Amino acid sequence: MAEITFDYFVGIDVGTTTTKAVAFDTKGNVLSQFSSGYDMTHPHPNWSEQDPEEIYEAFQKSLSMIVLPSLADKSIVSFSSAMHGLIVMDKDGKPLTRLMIWADNRATELANQLKATDLGQELYHRTGIPIHPFSVFSKILWLKENEPEIFSRTHKFIGIKEYLWFRLFGEYTIDYSLASGSGLFNFSESAWDTLALTTLGISAEQLPRLVSTTHIQKNDTNPNLPLVNYVIGAGDGPLANLGSGAMNPGQMAFTMGTSGAVRMCVAQPYTDAKMRTFNFFLFENQYIIGGATNNGGIVLQWLEEQILGSKNSIAKLIEEAQKLEIGSENLLFLPYILGERAPVWNAKAKGVFFGLSITHTQAHLVRAVMEGLILNVYSIGKILMEQQQIHEICASGGFAKSDFWLQLVADIFQKKVVICETVEGSAWGAALLAMKALNMKEAANTVAKGKEFLPNLAVAEKYSQLHQKFERLYEKLKDEF
């Protein structure tokens, strides 16, 4: 493989609501891109599902629009994927369930019961994943308790990337990165965790085969997808670190798309005594620790579509919100409309507007939501900064296209924020991983940095007080959710 020359490094980013294919050159310049979306459904309270076939069709369409037949010999494709999803497959390769995504909270009661036990603590320290309904472990536990007939018929428990790989190659394979986010993977042994499997009553044979994140396979049999080499890749969170350049001590990655997360790279996994952080594998001796929020850009989308119904565009409202004073004139927002993972790990948490008055406008609501989202992520970042001093935040994701968002991050965290030249952090991370799989020197290059946002020291105290009020409000309300 190493002697083959590629000009097009295609990162295929299978996200929560969109699959995006982005073609890069070796310097990270975007040559072309295409995306295709799909819906999230909520058939019952606390359920969040998607149709895996719709995602496959979006994947097929996006990739075929980028890797044209004339470019096939010059292209290599690498995967980035949303994490923590579960699809149950029968022995004939047919899904028995829809895709239960990271936001699915149906396992809340079971997870809460287990989390409070010594077994729950031991599972966390063995796998590095908190006991919470977002994890694949908790989703399988729910199926075992509530859908025994489906559970008994299960041939394989997989996620969305493994489903796409199965459609490509007819085999069930998972990379160490996706596996590490499942709550089923033992870090010290780099294998499926025997205690987790015993607790669930499943076997390792019911899970995909584990491979390196740089595993390469050639598609030479499936004519519905480009006949090129595919690198299995990794989870979108770890790849956002790689793609945004946040791989060194003192750097923190901040990603916000549908959901959001802050993460940093460490040489060894680290578990938190209060079970507040996660651990993901990327490469040997390079692990990503951090915390993810369920509530990112999807909250602003909800505000626009379901609440405001405004004649003004959300871009116009954000422009108006930017003119308002810090704190939106005493309007504070807890953003937990999808429950929450980090930092509170409370699937029952709810969204709250606190302090509404007759003088508040739509722009006030928009600013309160944007501030609430960043204040919440700052609560996660504080935990990470207990372990490592941070001097720079590397931003990626859809929010990195907005100067107002990025200045909010700089001001609330009181850290310098930089964006990489491409804001498609996870897709570029996947492309870099493909270069690493080919042993190319470009894979080690420092990611080119773009615009910088410096913290405004004059607003530090105001945001500090606002954040303290934010955390006090949650503590006062958490037992009422």
Automatic annotation (TrEMBL):
UniProt domain Carbohydrate kinase FGGY N-terminal: residue ranges: 8-222
Pfam families linked: FGGY_C, FGGY_N
Record bears the keyword Kinase: yes
Top-level lineage group: Bacteria
Cited InterPro entries: ATPase_NBD, Carb_kinase_FGGY, Carb_kinase_FGGY_CS, FGGY_C, FGGY_Carb_Kinase, FGGY_N
Source organism: Emticicia agri
Residue stretches making up the Carbohydrate kinase FGGY C-terminal domain: 253-437
PANTHER family xrefs: GLUCONOKINASE (PTHR43095:SF2), SUGAR KINASE (PTHR43095)
Entry's Gene Ontology molecular function annotations: kinase activity; phosphotransferase activity, alcohol group as acceptor
Keyword terms: Kinase, Transferase
Single GO BP term: carbohydrate metabolic process
Keyword Nucleus assigned: no
Protein name: Carbohydrate kinase
Family: Belongs to the FGGY kinase family.
